[in-house]
Automatic annotation (TrEMBL):
SUPFAM superfamilies: WD40 repeat-like (SSF50978)
Subcellular location: Endoplasmic reticulum membrane
Membrane topology classification: Single-pass membrane protein
Stated name of the protein: Prolactin regulatory element-binding protein isoform X2
Keyword Membrane on entry: yes
Domain of life: Eukaryota
Repeat positions for WD: 91-123
Annotated keywords: Endoplasmic reticulum, ER-Golgi transport, Membrane, Protein transport, Repeat, Transmembrane, Transmembrane helix, Transport, WD repeat
Gene Ontology terms for molecular function: guanyl-nucleotide exchange factor activity
Primary location: endoplasmic reticulum
Transmembrane spans: 244-262, 321-345
Region feature (Disordered): 28-69
Keyword presence, Membrane: yes
Length: 349
């Protein structure tokens, strides 16, 4: 199953169909009756109970509240998004303003739908074989990765360019790796910049496992900026934090890792956190409510797996040393060294 979220609407793939669901969260309050209401009458026999204290009486006579949340789900639309023999939708993605929905199937076709009417506007062959992942940039360019070793950028149904992550790595042959995932992300402290991140995994399993790779691309001209290995556990899922600061990775062996997006350096890793394939990872949104949940931590990543467990991974806040203070300390050390030399060797200056 794959899914994408747009406010209170979820687009989720099940077999060859995409289900559009709307959910509502309602809180219910249930009050338990005071235990005194259950006292036996004058003609009834029962166990004599101790009188409640004054403080209990002031607080409502011992009443307890049971607050529960109820999620109601309404099915809005169902459309068929794959027509292959496997009958399987592989990926789904909303654009930035949630005006279009893009799906990719095992048949290699990309289908673009108006949202929320779900009127199909585009239907074109993007890959020879399954489409593994889809991402949409702010200009509605579509990036697709497939089993045919290709990563393609599309403007509507026209191919803009094909990406080659190993162009500057001559030791890596073309068909040894295939693309597994792609995600766009912001650039911290630069609102006009955009980055695309892709994950490459070995096409075949070798006796000696090969390393997987992460590549960072310029999201405007699609030039490769940096490629780094990310271990020999096969990557299954990729996520980018709202600010573009961190990348989250899940593996087929159940491990979870977090990388700094700028340098692609690993800052967090739990081996076999689930012990089975990680089916999705996502960062808590960097909203007011999301930051309340994170507390003093800089980021929080949720991971889910085939074991039906959801786990939370926290990155503690990094305390940065102010650059200006560092420069002042360096200047003071230089002045102190000069004065010391002048004292030891009179006439030094």
């Amino acid at each position: 199953m794959n899914m994408a979220l747009a406010g209170d609407v979820v687009a989720t793939g099940q077999d060859e169909y995409c289900h559009i669901l709307k959910f509502r969260l309602k809180k219910q309050e249930a009050k338990k009756a005071n235990s005194s209401q259950g006292k036996p009458g004058p003609n009834e026999k029962g166990i004599r109970k101790r009188k409640s204290s004054n403080s209990t009486a002031k607080n409502g006579g011992g009443d307890t509240k049971n607050e529960t949340a109820e999620v109601s789900v309404e099915k809005l639309q169902v459309v068929q998004t794959d027509f292959s023999q496997e009958l399987l939708q592989k990926s789904v993605c909303f654009n930035k303003d949630h005006s279009i929905l893009v799906t990719g199937g095992a048949d290699g076709f990309v289908r673009v739908w108006e949202f929320p009417s779900m009127k199909k506007t585009l239907d074109f062959k993007a890959h020879n074989g399954e489409i593994e992942d889809i991402a949409v940039d702010p200009d509605n360019k579509i990036v697709t990765v497939g089993h045919d070793f290709q990563c393609c950028v599309w403007k509507k149904d026209q191919l803009v360019t094909g990406l080659r992550w190993n162009e500057n790595l001559p030791a890596v042959a073309d068909r040894v790796y295939r693309y597994q995932a792609c995600r766009f992300g912001k650039v911290e402290d630069n609102k006009d910049a955009l980055r695309l991140y892709t994950v490459q995994i070995p096409y075949k399993r070798e006796r000696k496992p090969l390393s997987c790779y992460i590549t960072k691309w310029d999201g405007k001209n699609y030039l490769a900026l940096l490629t780094q290995p990310c271990g020999n556990e096969v990557i299954s899922r990729l996520s980018v934090s709202d600010s573009g600061t961190f990348l989250g990775l899940g593996t087929v062996t159940g491990s979870v890792a977090i990388y700094i997006a700028f340098s692609l350096q690993k800052v967090y890793y739990v081996k076999e956190a689930h012990g089975i394939v990680v089916t999705d990872v996502t960062f808590l949104p960097e909203t007011r409510r999301g930051r309340e949940l994170m507390g003093d931590n800089e980021a929080a990543l949720l991971s889910v797996a085939v074991d039906s467990c959801c786990k939370l991974h926290l990155i503690p806040s990094r305390y940065m040393f102010p650059v200006w203070l560092l420069l002042v300390l360096c200047a003071m050390m230089i002045i102190a060294a000069v004065l010391l030399l002048q004292h030891i060797f009179p006439g030094f200056l």
